[in-house]
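Subject: mismatched residue count in predicted assembly?

I count 790 residues in my input, but I want to confirm that the predicted structure covers every chain. Input:
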Amino acid sequence: MARVTENPDVSQVKQTAAKLIDNIGKVIVGKSESIKLVLVALLCEGHLFIEDVPGIGKTMLAKATASSLDCSFKRIQFTPDLLPSDVTGIYYFNQKTSEFEFRPGPIMANIVLADEINRATPRTQSCLLECMQERQVTVDVTTMPLPRPFLVIATQNPVELEGTFPLPEAQLDRFLLKVRLGYPSEDEEEAILQRFQQENPLDKLTPVVEASELLELQKLCRQVYVEESVRHYIVAIAQATRDHQGIKLGASPRASLSLYLASQSLAALQGRNYVIPDDVKYLVIPVLSHRLVAKVESKLRGQSAESILEEIAFTTPVPVERAT
Amino acid sequence: MKLNWRQGTFYATTIGMEGCWLYALLVLLNNQATDGRLSIFGLLLLYPLAFGLNGLLLWLGWHRVYRDIINVIACGIAILFIIKAQLFSGLALSDTTWLLALPRAIANIFYAFAPELLILVSSAVLWWLGRRLSRIRVSFVNSVSEFQFGLAILLIVFFIAPLLEVQLANSVLITLAFFLSALLGISIAHAQEGTSWLAGLHQGHWAGLLLVSISLILILGLLISSVITPDFLQLILTALKWVWGLIMKAVAFLISLLPEPSPPEPLPSEALPAPTPAEEPDWSKLFILPEAVRSGLRLGWTIMVLGLMLVFLWRVSSQIFGWLRRRLSTAGAEVEPLSGAFRADLLSLLTRLLSRLLGLRRLLHRQRKPELPEITSIRQIYRQLLHWAAGRGLPRAVFQTPNEYLYILEDALPESGEALRSVTQHYVSARYGLSSPSADELHQLKQSWHQVKQNRPKRPHSEAQP
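Triage response: the counts match. Full output below for your records.
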């Protein structure tokens, strides 16, 4: 087929994604859809929010992803006594040199795992706001850029709410995707038992993608073509969340931009150099559900943000020809 | 457009319903506006004419722009023909009086409502209804909507006619024909969707069962009519007339708020000296609107009030039917009534109309990017596929993407799966990726489409095989 527009060749993205999926699959059994979403976030350089019950493999998934990339990785266990300086770093006085020196915090890494982020106080949570949005950190009066690629993978347990501090909407809006893993099937659980019987496969995992390669792929994904009507479709969905009667806080322009970028990455992941409405529809719930705030009346009726988004996805017209 | 018997029966019943209320309404308007000069059946002929012409154009697969142009020209010619035939039959064709009659009537619209204007408005509405009918699909929602709207119009006409002292001949026959068409159309549409008992095990005997059910309803109607006496009906009618009187008084009061058309009466000459024309102050002219503007304002106000009443009747009847449907459903779901639903619905309707108008303006100002002819061809083929599938009971829902819709088509046409996949994939590439196929690929695509057209989709609910 001849191409009208100069759409990029994204076969490299698909090949690299296949390598990553295979590698992560050595640790995580099943969960191909969740791994796909993780890769979408990687390709968009967007932050990931994994929320699920304990023992599902949230931290394991984050570690497996980080281990598959030849990037620096740091883990932060969020606790109620964690301070912002424990995350960003601190200037301390070196008595030997009689000067103030900067000790970088664990945030200065390519992949940062923020484990159980809701256990830290809002003060500590808010130190991530600048890091996640602007990819820089300000300590005292000095602003330092963070390394590229920079990705925050945060995990949260939705069950234990005592002694936790729910993330504010401003912070939730900075996460590109929310991923839920869910319980494994019977076969998958048996496979987990067999796989982890002798040793932890995570210990033997080696990187398959370098940081520079990942940056190239991210640039490639940004060139994926998005037709005008698909852009209108994305905006229409975002507008629908703002106009819906059951939603108090709809999707922000950052949310529609995230949906746009994520759709490009998903299309590239599947070997296409253009976005189709199916890509947008697939990503509506993972990208938008954690950003919306449903009204109290909706919650009392048993409607969640996910169910409202499903309703919106099934009522917003898709840009297709009309029957003559 | 391949006409199957279900679609044909649906068309016939819709024509029946619309024909009944159109006839009643036209008789009323004809009597009031033209003293009964016009032939109603002559006007009603436009309806099947528009339906037939648009059906032919759809079958030929002409582009929408060409269809619109032909419709405008044909409607214009039909209107002029009716004016000539009904109002100026004695005049020769070369005499331009009949040609200029319509522009003259439009120019004098604020002063008199000429028969030409009635012909213009009614013809345009009839043509639009006929065109709409050629595109309508068999669905339960469409049938019930037609019934609701027709019922509301008929009730209004039957109510107004005695007030205006207009004799509506054959009103009982019109009502019976309307309800018979409605029952038949709604039953067929409901059975078509496979959700009623007619679509189940008894599907093979649906005709007989349908006739039995209609007969039962008619017998029930006769029994009820024997119970409800004319006196009882008169009482109800009096109550409704009283309510209507109140509404008319309210409307009259609102109209009376507009300033009087004629200037105030001059003071007696003994009280004041007669002002000379040079001394008459100019500022008085500022507060008196011209007669044409007043007439326009009155007309607009009346149209707005009548429109709001129609919308109110429409929404109330649809909510009643919606409530009846929910009560009869087996799901057992309880739906709480919403306060202010009519106001919310009205605001939502006005918002949608406004956004449509704004969307139309944006559409007109949007500059279309030039498209390759191959891409245009693929899009045309896909449009034809959508239209063909919709005509066979497989319409695409607005929220379905081409790939989602492909699953439904493959399920209904398993033997054309490969061809359908090819058409869909090429369409998706062309539409969203602007990928232009080669000449060979385009030729193969057309072959695939022809292959799909040869096959017949299997029915959504296969007949029971005990």
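The longest strand of chain B covers residues 435-436. Marking this ticket as 'not a bug'.
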